[in-house]
Structure formats: structure tokens, C-alpha cells
Amino acid sequence: QAKLYAFIYAAEHGLEEVGVQLTYARLDTGETREARRHFPVADLAAFFENVVGRYLEWAVRISNWQGQRDASIRGLPFPFDTYRPGQQEMVTAVARCLGRSERLFIQAATGIGKTLAVLFPAVERLADGTCDKLFYLTARTTGRLAAEKALEELRARGLHLKSLTLTAKEKICVTPQAACHPEECEVARGHYDRLPAARRAMFASEAWTRAAVADAAHRFHVCPFEFALDLSQWADLVVCDYNYAFDPAAYLRRFFQEEAGDYIFLVDEAHNLVDRSREMFSAELHKKPFLDLRRSVKGALPAVYRHLGRINTWMLATRRRVETAGAPIAEPEAPEALYPLLREFMGAAETWLEKNLKSPFREALLERYFEAGGFLRVAESFDASYAACSDAAGDELRIKLFCIDPSRQLGEALNRCRAAVFFSATLSPLDYFKTLLASEPAAALTLASPFPAENLAVFVADRLSTYYRHRERTAPEVARILDRLVRPHRGNYLLFFPSYRYMRMVLEAFRAANPDIDTVVQAPGMGEREREVFLERFAADTPRTLAGFAVMGGIFGEGIDLVGTRLAGAAIVGVGLPAVGLERELIRAYFTDHLEQGFEYAYMYPGINRVLQAAGRVIRSETDRGVVLLIDQRYGSSHYRRLLPEAWQPVSIRDAAR
Predict the structure, then answer these.
(1) Would you list the domain boundaries of the chain?
(2) Taking the C-alpha atoms of 224, 230, 235 and 240 in order, what is their torsion angle to the nearest 10 degrees?
């Protein structure tokens, strides 16, 4: 950099030789170190021309590519001869929203082709100069795959577009046991020397999927995660998790650090963003890991040991307050006294970490360092929409800065883009999501299912209570109703419950009464292979009836496609309410004060979206036929009926419990 400056200065002043001085300064101590060199201008000129020549070659390549891309977009037809019912209306609404730089919420039933209906008009913005980059934000692998599939359909009709799928660091790292440092990680060592060749090779292709990035990173021996981040600068569309756009700890600073850009956010499965955003804008610390670290550094790191002791003293005092209260504590005031203790610990830790790359406690120290930093980052946003929660169990203490209302910070994140589209099959009621996800007015569109209404039969058993206090009594009755659902028609059924405990109660009664019906049961903490085995049981044209027992809002409640005869029906036991707890009660109190809708925002609306997602597993294509059974007396209430899709028209089973 200094040599480039030196050449420019020498050229402007007609010099034949120029001196260059670099000064390195330590900000904490003020200590400086100088390096001086003299260069003939001819040498500097050759260096300058080499650097600029390489940059110019790349800039020309980018410019030529953008011309090719824009030409392909201008002539791009919709990839299918006809639109699905509702799809053209969705395309038009998205185009209007993006053209006006607005925010749009779309509730569109399964089968409309949401992904393509959003991507097709969004891609057009790249060619008209109103958009620099598209971000397709999704919380699930299924969302990523849907975006990649839609892009391939557009490419098949002539689209040229470079898309990148950004994968989490922990999922794509090839040296997970090594620190991200050249002295420990073999791919980090020399990464930037090998990066230009990897980038040039990758630029010859267009679909930079996870597999493509990993393959190129392996061939050129570069860090796959850093390689993907580098490629994001040249990608026209980035498919990634919500946190790369919204999370203060993880958002892509190369795009969003300074000011808003001409970016478009396409937020897939947007119903997930409410709880995800609360997680992103919250932070918590646990006492035990800090105490364990203190014990491990005793005698080795006196400054770190001392500061960890002060943190532990504060946590002990807080734990005693919780124990005295006899219950978790929630306070509107921030734990201000903890903040300087964390900063002092971070300062001492950073000084040691900079000089010591190998140590048996380095990893633990680094983890606590980042935890403290994340906590302090969230602390900067602490206001009336937060609560400080303290909870103790035995010797452990958890202190959490809990974000009750994420709308302000989501609004700040959305200011980084020029337009945003939120879409899902379940955004009910729309006003709830608009309030929490958009801090300014937004347009809305609701599209009904394109499939024949007669393909789905909806029944409701609204004489049974699944309230917590009634569950033990009603479990046998629920089992009998489920028997009436699955016995008449051979096939596979998913039966959703509000909790594992209630599910096991009903399962026991169901198995005792139905030994001839196969069952498969969701277990807590199932790994990827266990999930696959569970879903493999749902075979098409099964010779025996299968009843799958699962928990609402869990891994099988959304994001799975059991098309055709792989799923004959689903039962939803209860109304999906989240479990009562401190955080849910804080949400309830907050929105009671602000909107007089505390119960709705804390329990009812999140619950009904779980119900709709679970029911949405049944009809996945125009040829699917199936049944949904809702079991709970609350489904007989107008408060809940108004939240169900109009097309359902549920039929009550008045004698269901007999």
C-alpha cells in the first residue's frame, strides 16, 4: 500500500527515487516501530502497473459478466408455460413491492410456487440497475434447496446468474480441531496466496453451492468458509441463514457495516423469524464455565484469574438473590455492575491470547471471551423492550438479557436493504407478523391453496380438553379418537402433540388398544440420521398402517415433504401453545401493556402457526388427498376458528369421545 502511495507521489512531483516509511503503533501502549526503505521510481512504476493490471483484468471480467447476466435477464421468460393459481398474482405483488422499495408480507399456501414467484421478479431488479445483490434468507436446509432448485429452473430457460450458498462455518470447516490461525490450521496457512487462483476457477461457473465451494476449496487448499465469504462479493444472489443479515454477532459486515446498499432481502419461512430474532438479539452467561476457567488458569494467568474471581463474586450474589426469591427473577433494569467486570476480563484475556496460541485452556478462554463480548454487544441495545433474567439451579446461575420485542432491531437491520419480501405458508394473523417483523408500514397479500378444497378433509373433535390439568384424564379418550382416524383407511399418519410427556401418555394407551398398528416415535435430540430413519418409515403404498407420534413445533412439524401416499393424514392434539415460562410471561405482560394482546402474542398466535405448519404436511401436491383432525375444545371457539384457513371448513365430530 505504501509503495502505491509512493509511486503516485513520485509521479506527481517528478522524482526519480522516493523514501517510504511505515510506522506501526500499539494503541494500548502508544509504542511505535518504524520501517524505512528507498525505491527507484522505475521499480515502483513496475510494481504499480503489475498491481493495477491484475485489478483491471478482474474488473473487466466482472464488467463483461454483468453485461452477459443483464442480457440474459432482459430476455428471460417465466420458466413454465403457465402460472399456478395465485402464482402470477404473487409475482406481480413482489414486482410492485421491489419497484417501490417497500416491504411486503405474503401468506401463500403450499403449492403456489412461492420460491419461484419471489425469485423471478427479484432477479429482474439486477438488470435494471436498482439492485446490487439479492439475499435469499432461510432458516432451513429445505429452504436452501428450494432456492437452488428454482435457480436451476431459471437457468434452464437462459438465465446467467452467479449464486452462492453460504454455509455455517462449523458445518463446512475441514479442520474443526484447529484454531483459525496459520500456525495451527493448514488451510489458513497460505490461504490468501492460493485464493486468487481458486477465485478465478470458481468464477467460470455460476452455481456456487455448498458442494461446489467445498470441492474448489479442497482442490486449491483454501479455507472453505473464508473462500465462500470472499465469493459473496461477486455473487449476484446469496442464499444464507437469517443471521447473516440480522444477527449483530454474525451479519455480513462487508455489505451491511456502513450504510444501506441496493440490496433486496427475500425472507423465506418468515414465521420462523420472530423466535429466531429474539434469540439473535438476546444473550446469556452461565456461572459454571467461568468458574471452571478460573480454576484452570489459577497460577498461570494471575490477571485473568483475578477478573474471573470478580465475575464469580457478582454471580454468587445474584444466585443468592434468586434463591431468596425462590423463583427466577426478571428485572427491567440492566445488570450494569456486571459490564465493567466483563470488560476488564476481556482486556486481560485479549492481552494473553494475542501472545499465546497453544495452551490447554486457550480454547475455553477464547469461548468465554467471545461469550462476554456477545453479552456486552447485546447490552448496548438494552432498553424497555428487554428484561434481565436470572435463574438458578443448584450451583449454576444463568443470567440472560432477553429481547421481548425484536421489532426495533429488526427494523434497523431492514434499513440495510432497499426492499424486503417476507413469505410463508403460515403468517396468521398477518398483523401479528407485521408488528413484530417490520417497524414501518408494509403491504400484505394472502393467497389460498391452489389445490382442490375437496382433496383435504378437516375434522375437529372440540369436546375434549387438552389443557395441562386435564391431560392425564383425557389421554385415553385422545387415543380412541386417533384410532378412529387411522383405522378406516390404511396409510401413514402423523400425530402431533403439545409435549413429549403428553405424547407418551397417549402413545401408551394407543399401543395397548391397537397392537396391529405400527408406530414410530420422535425422541428428544434426534440426530440427522435418526430423523432420516423416522421419515423412511413413511413409505408410499404401505401394506400396514403406520402412526407417527411427534411433537408440534419440532423437527417433523415443518420443512418435510411426504408427497403422494407417503402421508394420508395428520392429527393435531391441542392448539400448539408454547410452554408457560418466565420468558413467555414477559412477552405476555409486555404486549398486554403495549397492545392489550398479551396472551395472543405470547401464546395464541405462535401456537396457531405451529398447528398450521403441522397440518401443512398433508397436502404437498395437486394430486395429494388427505385428512386433518384437530383435537381440542378450543377449536370450537370463534377466537381460534377465525385463525384457521377459510378453505378448511372443519366438520365437528360431536360424538368423537363416545
Answers:
(1) 2-62, 83-166+235-281+406-449, 168-231, 288-403, 453-652
(2) 60
pLDDT digits (tens, 9 = 90+) for 180-196: 888 889 999 999 999 99
Whether residue 260 has pLDDT greater than 80:
no
Question: Is 657's pLDDT higher than 50?
Answer: no
Candidates 603, 600, 617, 505; CA nearest to 555 is 617
d(CA 527, CA 525): 6
Long-range interactions of 498-503: CB distance < 8 A, separation 24+? 498/466, 498/551, 498/552, 498/573, 498/574, 498/576, 498/577, 499/551, 499/579, 500/524, 500/551, 502/466, 502/471, 502/475, 502/573, 502/574, 503/549, 503/550, 503/551
Residue 655 predicted with pLDDT over 80: no
Same fold, 83-166+235-281+406-449 and 453-652: yes
Radius of gyration of the chain (CA): 29
Closest CA to 235 of 180, 303, 163: 163
Q: How much is the pLDDT for 654? A: 65
Tell me the average pLDDT of the chain.
94
Strands 283-286 and 396-403: antiparallel
Distance CA 255, CA 235 (A): 12
Q: Which CATH number applies to 453-652? A: 3.40.50.300
**Is the Cα dihedral 407, 254, 170, 367 positive or negative?**
negative
Task: Give the residue, 181 or 484, on which the prediction is more confident.
Answer: 484
d(CA 222, CA 191): 5
Q: Are 142 and 424 in contact (CB under 8 A)?
A: no
Containing 532, the helix (H) or strand (E) segment is helix 528-536
287 contacts 397 by C-beta, under 8 angstroms: yes
Residue 656 clears pLDDT 70, i.e. is over it: no
Sign of the torsion angle spanned by Cα atoms 551, 552, 555, 560: positive
Give one DSSP letter per residue of 70-116, joined into a string: HHHHHTPPPSSSSPPTTHHHHHHHHHHHHHTT-EEEEEE-TTS-HHH
Helices assigned H by DSSP within 568-656? 582-595, 598-599, 605-615, 638-641
Return the half-sphere exposure (C-beta side, CA atoms, 13 A cut-off) of residue 239: 24
Q: Which H or E element spans position 23?
A: strand 17-25
The full DSSP string for 172-217 is: H-S-TTS-SSTTT-TTTTTHHHHHHHHHHHHHT-SEE-HHHHHHHH
Write down the CATH superfamily of domain 83-166+235-281+406-449. P-loop containing nucleotide triphosphate hydrolases (3.40.50.300)
Query: In this predicted model, what pLDDT tens digit does every residue of 313-353 receive, in sequence order?
Result: 999 999 999 999 999 999 999 999 999 999 999 999 999 98
Residue 258: predicted pLDDT:
72
Q: How many CA atoms lie within 13 A of 296 on its CB side?
A: 14
Q: Residue 547 is which amino acid?
A: A
Q: How far is CA 343 from the centre of its chain?
A: 29
283-286 sheet: strands from edge to edge: 283-286, 396-403, 386-393, 329-331
Q: Alpha-carbon distance 379 to 334, whole Å?
A: 8
Query: How far is residue 574's CA from residue 551's CA, in Å, rounded to a whole number?
Result: 11
Q: Look at 27 and 207; give whichever has higher pLDDT.
A: 207
Please enumerate in sequence order all residues whose Cβ is within 8 A of that of 56, keeping only pairs 6 or more positions apart, or say none: none
